[in-house]
Design a protein that fits this description.
By secondary structure, this protein is mostly helical. The chain has 3 helices and no strands.
C-alpha cells in the first residue's frame, strides 16, 4: 500500500468521523430545543397521586412493622391515619411545587 492510498484512506475516515460528529451535534441541538416534561406533570393525574400516596402509605406501614414492631392489629388501627398523612403530604408537596413554579414565573416576568 502506498502513502497516497494510506492518506486517501485516512482522509476518508476523517470525513466520516466529521459527518458523524455533525450528525450527533445536530441531534443534541434538537434534543435541547424540545421542551422537557415538567416534574409537576407526573402528579396531575388522580391515578398517579393515588398510586404514590398508596406507596407512601405502604412504606410507612412497613416501617411501622419492622422498625416499631407493630402487630397486625395496630397496623390496621394506624393504617388509616398513615394513609391520610401520606396523602396529605403528597398534596402539600404537589401544591408546594406548583407554588414555587408560579412564584418563579412571576419573578422572571419582572
Amino acid at each position: 500500500m502506498t502513502y497516497r492510498e494510506q492518506d486517501a484512506g485516512r482522509a476518508e475516515e476523517e470525513a466520516q468521523a466529521a459527518a458523524r460528529a455533525a450528525e450527533e451535534t445536530k441531534r443534541f441541538a434538537e434534543a435541547l430545543r424540545t421542551p422537557r416534561r415538567s416534574p409537576l406533570s407526573y402528579f396531575k393525574s388522580w391515578r398517579a397521586q393515588r398510586f404514590i400516596a398508596t406507596m407512601l402509605g405502604l412504606v410507612a406501614l412497613g416501617a411501622g412493622y419492622k422498625v416499631f414492631g407493630w402487630n397486625l392489629e395496630r397496623l390496621m388501627e394506624y393504617g388509616l391515619y398513615i394513609f391520610a398523612v401520606g396523602g396529605s403530604a403528597l398534596l402539600l408537596f404537589v401544591f408546594g411545587l406548583a407554588g414555587v413554579r408560579a412564584l418563579r414565573e412571576r419573578l422572571s416576568r419582572r
